[in-house]
Amino acid sequence: LFPDKAEEIMSNVDPGEYGVENYWVRFVCIFVFMMTVLSDITSTVDLMTILWHVPSSTSENWMEFHVPDWADKAIVKEFKDCSDIEFVKFKFAGMSRVWKLINCILIVIPKLLIFRT
Asked: In the predicted model, what is the mean pLDDT of residues 36-49?
């Protein structure tokens, strides 16, 4: 930027410090960085736990239409003032082994390779 003042700049500025000479500032920066890294490691471990514990069967339905037993659907809709979508319930059914493997290869293994050092 200023070629005529290169000697003066290099004698007064240490390019390795980047202006952070206070050890408390360094400590806070490292602490914030480590908190972020630990959060990511925790989420990776949580993903591995979910992939391990989720059933591998995909024969179950992941949604069901549930009408109360106490009356006909039309009567329940009129009584509760709701639509048909209110009777749809979503549930966790399972994940095939192929999708578990894809998640491990594309998400878990690359994240673990980042933290291996």
From this structure: 92
